[in-house]
Each structure stands twice: as structure tokens, then as C-alpha cells.
Design brief:
Blueprint (H helix, E strand, L loop, with lengths): L4 H4 L3 H20 L2 H17 L7 H25 L19 H16 L3 H12 L4 H8 L3 H18 L10
Length: about 180
């Protein structure tokens, strides 16, 4: 792929530094696969580096990156549905040793993450973009191509489902 000369002036190192983690997290939220998320992340960052039109401001640039990553993930999921694959045996990834006391916190965090990942895709993307990335509902609506009311409804349903799924674990936290 030929990188346009104008794109070289946009500091690719800054773009990768600023957006690699964000794009990887967005992709993992959709794909639930580290390898697939890394592939889509790389493709998204290449598109960002090669993007020729200027962005209005940093917020516009960030929203563009999230939208491109989300669309690439949706395309991959759609292609998988049209062309199913046989999964290879999963290889466990090495885990760093834990300090004492971390086990309970990590189990709780894993349970919350598993509950969020079990949500239907529209609810999962709304929860991720709103609570993990800090986007207001209006911006989430623009990114996912829905109305603000639809995003608020997805968040409400997601919270209700998470409250039910995690009942008993977080009774010491206000609802």
C-alpha cells in the first residue's frame, strides 16, 4: 500500500501512540478475539495514517478512528457469518503471577467483563463506548449510527441485565 505524501506529515508515531490501545479495546469488544482485534487494529491504524482529509479537531479524529474500527469489526463479523470457519483449539495465554489479595479483585473484574461481553452487540457497544471510553450518549449514537434515545434505551437495558447477572456481587454499591 502506497502511503500518500501528505499522510507522512501527520506523525504516524503519534497516531499509533494515541490510538492503538483505544482501537484494540474497541475491536476486542466486538470480536472477543485478541488475534482478530489486533488484525483489525492494524488495518484501522493504516487507514488513519493514510487518511488524506484533515480532521476538524482531535475529537473528530478520535470519533473517526472509533467509527472505522467498529465498522471493520462489523464487516468481519458479517463475513464470518457468511463464511463460517472451524475453530482451532484455543491455547491458553501465559498469565503474570498475582500478588496476594489480587485474586478476589481479579475474579470480580473478570466476572464483570464476562457479563458485559455476554450482552447483545448493540448493548455491549453502547456500554463500552459510554462507560469505558467516556463518550456521552449523543456521541455514542453518532458513532454507532443510532438515535440518542436508542442508545439510552440500550444502556438502560444493559444496566438492568448486568444488575440481574451480577446480583449479590455488588450489593455494597449503590444501584
Amino acid at each position: 500500500m502506497q502511503i500518500p505524501r501528505d499522510a507522512l506529515d501527520r506523525d504516524p508515531e503519534r497516531l499509533v501512540r494515541d490510538y492503538a490501545d483505544l482501537v484494540l479495546r474497541v475491536c476486542y469488544t466486538y470480536l472477543r478475539s485478541t488475534a482478530d482485534a489486533e488484525d483489525v487494529c492494524q488495518d484501522t491504524l493504516v487507514k488513519l495514517i493514510c487518511h488524506e482529509e484533515p480532521f476538524r479537531d482531535p475529537g473528530h479524529e478520535r470519533a473517526w478512528v472509533v467509527r472505522v474500527a467498529a465498522n471493520a469489526c462489523k464487516n468481519l463479523l458479517r463475513d464470518r457469518g457468511a463464511h463460517p470457519e472451524v475453530a482451532l483449539d484455543a491455547v491458553a495465554e501465559p498469565v503474570a503471577p498475582r500478588e496476594s489479595g489480587e485474586d478476589g479483585i481479579l475474579r470480580r473484574d473478570e466476572r464483570v467483563l464476562a457479563a458485559v461481553m455476554a450482552l447483545p452487540l448493540p448493548q455491549r457497544e453502547a456500554v463500552y463506548l459510554h462507560y469505558y471510553e467516556g463518550y456521552p450518549t449523543r456521541e455514542v449514537a453518532r458513532i454507532v449510527g443510532a438515535t440518542d434515545a436508542a442508545v439510552r434505551q440500550r444502556l438502560s437495558r444493559a444496566r438492568a441485565r448486568l444488575r440481574e447477572d451480577l446480583k449479590g456481587d455488588y450489593d455494597d454499591f449503590p444501584a
